[in-house]
Amino acid sequence: MLKILIVEDDRELRQLFSHVLIKNGYTVKGVSNGNEALEALDNNYYDLIISDIMMPVMDGYELVRQLRDSGNTTPVLMITAKDAFDDMRQGFLSGTDDYMVKPINVNEMVLRVGALLRRAQMINDRRQVVGNTTLECDSLTVITDDETAVLPQKEFMLLYKMASYPGRIFTRQQLMDEIWGYDSDSDPHTVDVHIGRLRERFRDNKDFKIVTMRGVGYKVVRL
């Protein structure tokens, strides 16, 4: 079961986040500041951290900076009452992976948590094999019996995502959110363009094909 660390000095919010995440199948531990978070991370592994910014003893910015400086790459979702661009910019520069502004929609929070965990899994695995086709994340390379092709990043991540869950249907919006990010200004039909390029590039591939589910989205099917 995936484990999430909540770092929030507001006890009621901490309990609310914990309740919602536990209800959605996660194991949760809550602490009230950055120092307590570091202690918790010393004693246990966590798949994701949800952290407030303004906290006593050690704030969220400093917590993330210390984690990244020590080589800890655990995904961090920063939650704060501040909505100014400079505050958001500081959060991302410190190493934050995503950002939400209070008041928090807990349903959106669950979606963002899921997306961050899936991205982290993609990054950690680094490699996907479909029949005789290998997708290498580090080099954005697809290797088949006949050739080795280096893809543009977005095309590679689209293929990698769908190939990781063969047979599963992804909507355009799901792919948009996970590959381009929730805050992207790109049109979801951008996905169609990239899918078209992938389909053309791998039309003769003997291990998989990209199938359009009309009115729904796309999936990769093993052959």
Protein described:
The longest helix has 20 residues, at 106-125. Helix 2 packs parallel to helix 3 and helix 6 packs across helix 8 (190-201). This protein has helices at residues 11-23, 34-43, 60-69, 85-94, 106-125, 153-164, 172-180, 190-201; strands spanning 3-7, 27-31, 48-52, 76-80, 98-101, 127-130, 133-136, 141-143, 148-150, 170-171, 208-213, 217-222. It has a five-stranded parallel sheet with strand order 2-1-3-4-5, sandwiched between helices. A four-stranded antiparallel sheet has the order 6-7-8-9, covered by helices on one side. Strands 10-12-11 form a three-stranded antiparallel sheet. Helices cover 43% and strands 23% of the residues. It is elongated. The model has no long low-confidence stretch (mean pLDDT 88). It is an alpha/beta fold and 223 residues long.
In short:
By secondary structure, this protein is α/β, with parallel strands linked by helices. It has helices at residues 11-23, 34-43, 60-69, 85-94, 106-125, 153-164, 172-180, 190-201, and strands at 3-7, 27-31, 48-52, 76-80, 98-101, 127-130, 133-136, 141-143, 148-150, 170-171, 208-213, 217-222.
